[in-house]
Amino acid sequence: MSLPLISSISVDAKPESPKPWSQDSRPANDTKVGTPTRKKNCNCKNSKCLKLYCECFAAGVYCDGCNCTNCCNNVDNETVRHVAVEATLERNPNAFRPKIGSGTQTLRDSRDETGEPLFGRHNKGCHCKKSECLKKYCECFQANILCSENCKCLDCKNFEGSIERKPLFRGDHGSTLYMQHAALNGAAGAHIFLSPTISRKRKIQDVFSCTSVNGQSTKSFTQSKTPVQVSSSTPIPAASSTNTAPVASTKVIYRSLLADTVRTEHVRDLCKLLVMVSGEVAKTVADRQIEESSVLEGHVECSPHSDYERDQSQKDLDMPRTSADECSSGISLDKPDKEESRSECREREKGGKPMSPGTLVLMCNEKDMIFMASQAAAADPSSSNNRSMSEAYVEQEKGVLTKFRDYLLKLVTCGQMKEEKYRSMSSMHERACHMESALYSIARTSVPATTVEIPLTRTSSPAYSTNICPPVGCQTLGNGDMKIKLEKAEM
DNA sequence: GAGTTTGAAACT
DNA sequence: CAGTTTCAAACTC
């Protein structure tokens, strides 16, 4: 008995074919993989592509289409390569770990005054001396992140607020995509605009070397050689989306709208559900056939469970409710025996080593295949009625495909809802920034220092208050409204 | 495309 | 751990 559909689904949960350094998972924000589809071709000559000098080796991939000579980073030299991997790991157990860590929540969700994304930081930090960390020699710059306290660079200009860095910055200014990414990562709080951790990196440079709305440098508010704590209410003009600084590259970090929505356990649950649907359909078909044969024989007997089970089956087929909240927390499957199955799996896990989700799915498949076999046997004791069997298969397939289709439709709905959500968040943010910029322009006139408080009407978007912090200079009032607190500087 | 510069990795 | 060498990418011309 075969259940090709179920089997094929379960494959998704299975890990990819193992690589010698499978632990390596380059960060999404690493520009080397910032464009995930792009694979760099190395030009190694002396390292045989078996040292970290080789980008392919370091990235944990085979050389493919590279211009390297004496390359051993391929399937043919698996043994040699394995030795090299071992040696490398011996030297540095983290050699194949991502260089750019996601960092703390603060860091990951930070961005500078240009609105550019600054996800993560270099785990080891760079050691640049001459490039001022403004060239791709610098790993931080290359990864499109700011230098952090991990770095030991000299004359660093890759820090927040750096005038030199600004024209070189590569990013998507306050774009919807950024907002999406930030929101998906749970961006919250004041750190989204300025990270104190990153600010610590500032050394001799102007801490508040401000850039006006049009991107031109202006008089600094202060000059400091000491770390400065920057709060969200610091009167720094947010460049916002009106910043017209040249963008050297339009590389955008893409994150699926459904990221964090579909998780491994959901795939597993879906598989289980499909298996269950398949089983229910088979049972229904079997019951119907028994019924039909009984009618033919003139002995009409009611199936003791059919109606009830049909109801139950229908309940099982009902898709879970769709709501924004549900989308945010991931799609769950309302499956009656979900908890039971999980506990069963947990029971199994207790007995031995923990099993991967893929293994669990496969085991569930195995279990259900046995179940299906017994079902079919019950439906057709002679096991020779091919017509009945194929009819059952067709019904099964139909049921499973229908269920799967419903699930996909639900995913699409979730994606659309998220898209709408982030769009409204983005437009709200841009409006606030525009207003803030306008106010800042006013503030720069010769009006004596004072505090301007302008209440802003809060939009209906709950995301604004929960996921995104107020723009720089904005404060959230107790009643949910926002005000812009802007201390005017003497010019 | 060749030569130079640069900084990470490897080595001592 | 610091200094030196090797290496390949980034950069310049």
Features:
14 helices; Tesmin/TSO1-like_CXC; CRC domain-containing protein; 3 domains; Lin-54_fam; DNA-binding; 40% helix; 4% strand; disordered N terminus; two-stranded antiparallel ribbon; mainly alpha; 491 residues; 3-stranded antiparallel sheet; elongated; nucleus
Report on the structure:
This is CRC domain-containing protein. It comes from Zingiber officinale (Ginger). Belongs to the lin-54 family. Keywords: Nucleus. It is found in: Nucleus. The structure is a single chain. Helix 6 crosses helix 13 and helix 8 runs parallel beside helix 12. The chain has 14 helices and five strands. Strand 4 and strand 5 form a beta hairpin. The protein has a three-stranded antiparallel beta sheet, with helices on one face. Strands 1-2 form a two-stranded antiparallel sheet. It is elongated, with a radius of gyration of 30 Å. The chain folds into three domains: 61 residues, no CATH class; 157 residues, no CATH class; 155 residues, no CATH class. It has 491 residues and is mostly helical. The N terminus and C terminus are likely disordered. The chain binds a DNA duplex (12 and 13 nucleotides) through loops.
Helix fraction bin = 40-55%
Q: Give average pLDDT, whole number.
A: 57
The biggest sheet amounts to: 3 strands, antiparallel
Percentage beta strand? under 5%
Number of individual domains? 3
Strand order of the largest sheet: 3-5-4
GO biological process, one term: regulation of DNA-templated transcription
InterPro entries: CRC, Lin-54_fam, Tesmin/TSO1-like_CXC
Subcellular location: Nucleus
GO cellular component, one term: nucleus
